[in-house]
Write a structure and sequence with these properties.
The chain has one domain (5-69). Helix content is 44%, strand content 9%. The chain contains three helices and two strands. It has a two-stranded parallel sheet with strand order 1-2. The chain is flat.
Length: 70
């Protein structure tokens, strides 16, 4: 048994319909997740979240502020 951590940006669902930010379609998150699981990857970063690991290394304070805004 394995676990795959999924880190999406804001996903376009009714829960976030009121937010005026860029949103990723849920189908894109599902497709990326299924590809990562099939490949045995332990993590998958979807959409703009792909930059998060790099940003956390280079500028952790900026990364925290960016995540707090979403």
């Amino acid at each position: 048994m394995t676990v795959t951590e999924v880190v999406p940006p804001v996903v376009d669902t009714p829960a976030v319909a009121h937010l005026a930010v860029r949103k990723v379609p849920p189908e894109a998150v599902a497709a990326a997740t299924l590809r990562a699981v099939a490949a045995g990857r332990p993590e998958v970063y979807v959409g703009a979240a792909r930059l998060l690991p790099l940003l956390l290394r280079l500028a952790p304070g900026l990364a925290e502020a960016a995540v707090a805004r979403t």
